[in-house]
Amino acid sequence: MTKGDRSGDDRPVSILDLHGIPELTAVHRSDRFLELGACVTLSTILSLPDSLALDPLREGIRSIATASVRNLATIGGNVSAHDFFMTCFSALACMDAAVELRDTTGARWAGIHTLIGEDGRPAFPVSTIMTRIRIPSLHWDFATIRRLGEQTRGEPCPASFSAAARVEKGTIMELRLVAAGRTIVRDRSLELSLIGQRLPLTPKLIETAEAAASVMARERELDAVRADRYGSAVAAFLYDMQGQSR
Amino acid sequence: MTIDFILNGEDVSMKAEPMERLSDLLRDRFQLSSLMSDCLEGRCGKCLVFLGGHLVNSCLVPAFRVRGAEIITYEGFKSTDTHELVHTSFGQEGVELCGFCDAAVYMAAGSLLDAAAQPPEDTIMETISSVYCRCATPSATLQAVHTAVDLKFGGKYGRAR
Hints:
The complex is a heterodimer.
Chain A: E1 27-29, E2 33-37, H1 42-46, H2 57-62, H3 67-70, H4 75-79, H5 87-94, E3 98-103, E4 106-111, E5 129-136, E6 142-149, E7 159-168, E8 171-180, E9 184-185, H6 188-194, H7 203-219, H8 224-245
Antiparallel strand pairs in A: 1-2, 2-5, 3-4, 3-5, 6-7, 7-8, 8-9
Helix pairs in contact in A: 7-8
Chain B: E1 2-7, E2 10-15, H1 22-30, E3 48-51, E4 54-57, E5 70-72, H2 74-77, H3 81-92, H4 102-113, H5 121-128, H6 138-153
Parallel strand pairs in B: 1-5
Antiparallel strand pairs in B: 1-2, 3-4, 3-5
């Protein structure tokens, strides 16, 4: 069961225990990607060698719960939550991860974005299980993840912000900015407006990006507080990026 | 459903609903009173057990998950050398914990000593922070854990040749 499933109604809960299937707990590494079984625990991912380009995922996992909870929690469970997107989702969306989905018709690989509905909310396909997650082995010059809200602080819905960028000769070559909570926010037009810009960015450009990010987040029904935090997180990431690149 | 597993080195069997909490089952069926069911959300860490060698919050473990697994609770951990080492270290540092916290904190500390090599500082801090305990200051608890780590690994690692 994942967060959001309900067992309190009259129907008996059907349980399919997957943890004994070796394929689901395997970690496979190649030159081009890292493949994680859906039942790989978060602590196993943290214990992978530092040489693997796993940020912002690794940083995000470190912010989840406690070490003992991470020994139980799995990457598949984190990605498949029904009510809202949990921390790993924004990181994996940022890293262009793909998921292997299996149903009665067979197995297929799909981008992680197939788990997002048209309304921007989680839409995990019915009668389907996720078996593997594939993360491209791409090195990001800058990557970050930060919480935009905490359920433990009594806030209605947690949310996270992930960002990754690649810079060549002082120019932004690739940029990903993703916020995920009740809905997911990724503004490709904002990303494209920043790609190709030379560092350092002007304060005005960063302010414009901050405002555009907040507006987009509100449009995607991320609540007002988190929308503003998203804008601030975008600005902080851009400032941080040019600070580190000096 | 019938669930067979190994509890503190003994083969046991019990009938339980698949979604019953392991912490409740261990307390109610096996009278293991070291397990505290406090928050039931994995925050307090008072119900830590070793499941297949990994430290986990038993309140978050559904009964079906323990089929064929090995579980060690504080009652089983108490008879190990690792417990002796942890207990000695906490005594040396003068850290006294209440009966509500000591089992979980000792098990968290013990999990660090079972590693093949000396655990890094961030692992020590993260593991110990799995238990919400204010019997002693966090720095005093950490000092006691460091003492245990030094007693276990001291002289073997971290020293220039």
